[in-house]
Amino acid sequence: MKFTKYLAAKMNVTLYLALALTLTLAAACGTSAPADTTTTAPAPAAAPAAAPQAPAASGSSSAPAPAPTATPAAAVMPAEVEVSPGMVTIMNAVWGNEYFDPRDQVGEGLNFHRALHAFWINSNENYELIPGVATAWDISPDGLTWTFNLREGVTFHDGEPLTAEDGAFTFEYMYGPEAIENSLSPGQSGQARLTEMVHPAEGNTVKITHKEIQANFAFLSAESAPGTTGPIIPDAYFQAEGSDGYNLKPTGAGPFQMVEFLRSEKMLFERFDDFYYHPDNGFDEDRRAKFQTLDMRLVPEASTRVAALRAGDADIIEANVAVRKQIEDSGGRIIFGRESTYVWMILQGCQNQEFPCHNRDVRFALDYAIDKEAIMYGLYTEEGACVCGYNYATPSTLGYSSDIDPIPYNPERARELLARAGYPNGEGFGTLNIYTWIAGDLPFMPELAQLVADQWKKNLNIDATVEVGETATIRNRWFNKELYGGVLLRPNEAKYDAGRSVTVYYADFEGRIHFGALREDLRDAVTKAKSEIDPAKRQDAYNEMYQQLWEAHYEPSIGHVHLPWGVSGRIATWEPWPVTPYLSSFWTITLQ
Amino acid sequence: MQRYILTRVFQGFITLWALSFVVFISAHLTGDPAVILLPPEASAPEDYELMKRKLGLDKSKPEQYLIFMKNAVRLDFGLSTKDWRPARDILLERLPATIQLSAAGMGLAILLGIPLGILSAVKRNSIFDYLSKFFAVVGMAAPQFWVAIMLILFFGAYLKILPTYGRGGPDHFILPAFVLSWSIMAGMVRLGRSSMLEILDSEFVKFARVKGLQERLVLWKHALRNALIPLLTFSGISLAGLLNGSVVVEVVFAWPGVGRLLLEGVVQRNFPIVQAAVLVSALFYIIAALIVDILYAYVDPRIRYN
Amino acid sequence: MAATETILAPRTGRVRQLRRRMREYRLPYIPIFIFLLMLVCAVFAPWLAPHETDTLDILKKNIPPGETTEHLLGTDTLGRDILSRMIFGARTTVVISLMALITGGLVGTVLGLISGYLGGWIDAVIMRVTDAALGFPTILVALVIAVILGKGTEVIILAVALTVWARFARMIRGDVLAIKVLDFVTVAKISGVSTPTLIWRHIFPNVVNTLMVITSLLVGQVILLEAALSFLGLGLAPGAPSWGIMVSEGKEVILDVWWLSLFPGLAITVVVLAFNFFGDWIRDYLDPKLRHSQ
Question: pLDDT tens digits for A159-214?
Fold first, then answer.
């Protein structure tokens, strides 16, 4: 064993010598980082995995990417992977309500679910749905019934096998009639209301029938879904412990098993050696953990997290771009979880004639007058943000195409349009209020609002004021339609499938808490996109919907921000997924 | 004396009731929590009604207040709206951390603050006196969170001799307890010094000296005892400040205590949590104040109660 | 009662007496200087500050102090001039402390006077409310007000005022209890002076000293409270020119962009120190028996 390791190391050295030569030709600076790769696979195998990421790399060509550790992940890996005995300490700022019961999880606490649970369907960094616990899934021709075939040989952390009964129980628990009243998550209640029935398990298949077409149900059941709708929980154990007991001593089939849990303080996990996702079970990738212990901590204060990283008490922290230098000084680096948060600018009440933004020219004028590059890159740096996509539709999400990118800064055009709309030089426009709040997930919201206001003033001579409120207060006023005539500027978590947000905003005419621009003319596109069953056509249907929204332009778009993780020098590799505002792809974390 | 204590206890309850009323009112002044708890995606009217029912907001305000009072008497503050567990249970989970930290902080303040103050009075105008004065003065004037972060960076990240955050062994207490108690300690140093000086200057100490008593005896028996009285009062008052202070300290040091719980509750409009935290901490404050008053009566028999 | 006599002393030779006393009482020149400097900054902020405080210039961010004469104390992460924000910060501090202490002091004094003089159930009620106020966490007060009014200086002012009035009430009441049994009050009462007049003309002048002492000692606490609330995100809106906001904006980059939090942090410390010294001096000068009051 030792000898082979030695040989491998030797081979690495020769390989890298050759690589280094070519690299030094390309880049003048000598990086010493690549010497830490743990696998022996040749580098070219990494190409297919890395290529699709390229378009999302958002024009940040100037600075060198942090530690280019070419991880040939998709390569043919030996069944025996090197597991470091070490511990990885991860610090988060929020943990939501700290529930492992997937039906009850509310809030931004998705960080730990991916460690504990196994999911019906897995994903990759391109958001393709790939087999997970389910080997195959299918939707009936009428679009109402979904069928999942479960894999054999998957076990929970307590050693019990994961069966179709567990799957059926999970669906019944998550979407059964009981869930409507008892789920703590309102989203979950809503989904349960749309469910007709969960069929009893037959052999290794689980079936669920909906009341209306749920085209995105497979996505909802995937690891990459924005909530916790994807995990499978153990029937017998869960029933024995009850939800409360389960939340304290959870068991799943995911890559880590829980060892210790102190609420609002600490979650200690150990590697689950029998995690099913590895080449022996027919996967081309080994998604078992590459280290022994995972220590998750809740540390609300950012400066404390940075100090802990510098002290060597933490390995991965939630950070922000401002602390980059302090992290790099201590031998660490920033790794971006790309497209994690978008800046959502919503003109309020434009369906009413009384407001200037009823006129489409005004909406475009406001957009043309914003120098997005200056604002976004100034606040969040060029590597930390991207002026692209249309609000929720960021480059890696369903339905994106480059024709919905933000419109370029053009103050002359903005003035022209405003004059055409009947407000030459801003005359008669009145005051424009920008409402925003101080967000935990995106710093500098008030400053961003101020910069936008400054540019509207400068370029359009419109009196724009900024009102910074408390999150809950502004949200409340938004829902009560008290922001009409103004602009709401808020961050939002990116989602691969933003269909639901769009529906609520433009097409949910029956809903009570709709809060904005309900539009008959947009309703069709939205409804059509939502009910498209064929996965191949979904992309186009979504794109068409976004095109129409872009044309209507009730939401001028500024761009999105990448989530900066501070990573210590101990961590050799980690490749978080895009569009994922929480910890993802634990299996790519390797220690030096 | 007994009557005095009884009256004070009764008055304490009245205070608690007044507080509970204010908390209830302020909680309901801050908007509809049902709307806040619903994510934008959940738009169905049923979701909203369901949420209101879950929160008990479907009843009239007076009715809500009666239910609140009835339950509060049994220390039942309802379910936390974040995780729908009893607020009392959550509070009890968090309470030990805060008590440990406050006790450590108060202990540190007393063990360090009082001797420093008294010594600097005894060794008046010495280097020691100036140093302890400086220590006290900065402790009272520097923003707590700033001090905390600087200490973490220096002792945790630079010297690497103390942990940077969280609970753990005894060494985890050093920084947070110090930050929490520095301003109290500073007050003790100043107060201890000035009252000791005053007493050393008083007739009866002079008399004791003239009588030819040993200097040590004069200091420790006559002077110290009297100098402790104002310090005792001050400790009692400071206890009330500990909760406010512990919010900042618990946030910076990632300490899972009541202060942080209160802040989270306040920001998330989690009123059961806020009510529980405020009332329980007020209860502690009232008990502490009562104990101090009673002790005070024993130490200083001159006090009369009417 | 030496202090009372001093106040009530005849006016003749007052200047000379004052000058002598200034020497005698070791007037705290440095705190007074700092106090005046702050006042000047506060009043003339728009003329003194070299730049606007809310214009962001991202191209000029993180300029260290002393690098350009344009930004003497450097700029912050968003390109705002630190010196200008410091000067306007003085104004914010003065406004908040002044307004909060005047409001809180007024309410507290009136209640303390009434409570102490009238006694009985009125006293009991007022004191229990005072206890409740002292046990009420300031952050909750701040939040409730922030929710109703939005973010801004008035939130801090109200939150602080709602916290400090109880201390005034407590202390003033204690004084009144001691004063109301004195002979001159009894004499006035017998000669048929109405209660309001009695409180206003006879008792109030005798608690002015206490009032000044508490006020000067509380200024420091008010400033620190503002800083703490800003840190917790319950105070002023970020970007507001306030020392507390500036320190908490700079706290994350303390090792890198150290000037961001150092200058406002120092300003807070120095001003609070100055007020503490000044308060001590006033206390010793006006009323040595108040030495134990914190």
Answer: 999 999 999 999 999 999 999 888 887 778 888 988 999 999 999 999 999 998 88
> Are C255 and A374 inside 8 Å of each other by CB?
no
B235 interface with C at CB cutoff 8 Å: no
Cβ-contact C94, C39 below 8 angstroms = yes
Q: Return the residue of A nearest to C148 by Cα.
A: A473
* C-alpha C8 chain-centroid distance: 27
Task: Give, to the nearest 10 degrees, the angle between helix C243-250 and helix C82-118.
Answer: 120
**What CA–CA distance (Å, rounded) separates A389 from A560?**
8
Task: Tell me the two tokens of residue A119.
Answer: 């999911």
B–C CB contacts, 8 A cutoff, strictly below: 130
Identity (one letter) of the amino acid at A231?
P
The type of residue at A369 is: A
Strand locations in A143-298 (E):
145-150, 195-198, 205-210, 256-262, 266-271, 291-298
pLDDT digit string (tens) for A466-523?
A: 988 777 778 878 877 888 899 999 998 888 888 877 877 777 666 554 555 667 778 8
Nearest CA distance, B90 vs chain C (angstrom): 19
Beta strands A316-318 and A256-262 are unpaired
Is residue A67 over pLDDT 50? no
Phi, psi of B159 (to 5 degrees): -75, -25
Candidates A103, A264, A509, partner chain B, best to mutate (most B CBs within 10 A): A264
The span from the CA of C142 to the CA of C148, in Å, is 10
Most B CBs within 10 A among A265, A480, A500, hence the mutation to make, goes to A265
Q: Which of B9, B183, B247 to mutate to test the interface with C (most CBs of C within 10 A)?
A: B247
A residues 167-206 closer than 8 Å to B (CB): 181, 184, 186-187, 189-190, 193
pLDDT at A562 over 90: yes
Question: Which residues contact residue A99 at a Cβ distance below 8 angstroms, ignoring those fewer than 6 apart?
Answer: A105, A106, A109, A184, A247, B83
Tokens matching residue C74: 């450097």
pLDDT in tens, C45-55: 888 888 887 77
- Cβ of A505 under 8 Å from any chain B Cβ? yes
* pTM (whole model) above 0.95: no
CA distances (Å), origin B218, targets A25, A90, B118, B298, C125? 84, 58, 13, 21, 44
* Reported ipTM: 0.88
Instruction: Decide the pairing of beta strands A385-386 and A557-567.
Output: antiparallel
Residue from A455, A432, A443, A435 nearest A375 by CA: A455
The one-letter amino acid at C136: F
What would the two tokens of residue C242 be? 């306030």
Contact C147 A473 (CB under 8 A): yes
Specify the 3-state DSSP secondary structure of B152: helix
Amino acid at B185: M
Instruction: Supply angle C-alpha B181, B186, B192, rounded to 5.
Output: 120
CA distance A90 to chain C (A): 18
CA distance C241 to chain A (A): 13
Q: Are strands A134-139 and A145-150 parallel, antiparallel or unpaired?
A: antiparallel
Contact yes or no for A379 and C55 at CB 8 A: no
Which residue type, as a one-letter code, is found at position C141? Answer: V
Q: Are A51 and A371 in contact (CB under 8 A)?
A: no
Compare CB distances from C237 to A322, A378, A446 and report the shortest one's residue. Answer: A446
Nearest chain C CA: its distance from A469 CA (Å): 5
CA-nearest residue to C234 within chain B is: B267
DSSP states of B83-124 as a string?
A: T-SBHHHHHHHHHHHHHHHHHHHHHHIIIIIHHHHHHHHHTT
Contact of C251 with B149, CB cutoff 8 Å: yes
Q: Is C10 on the interface with B (CB under 8 A)?
A: no
d(CA C64, CA C75) in angstroms, rounded, equals 7
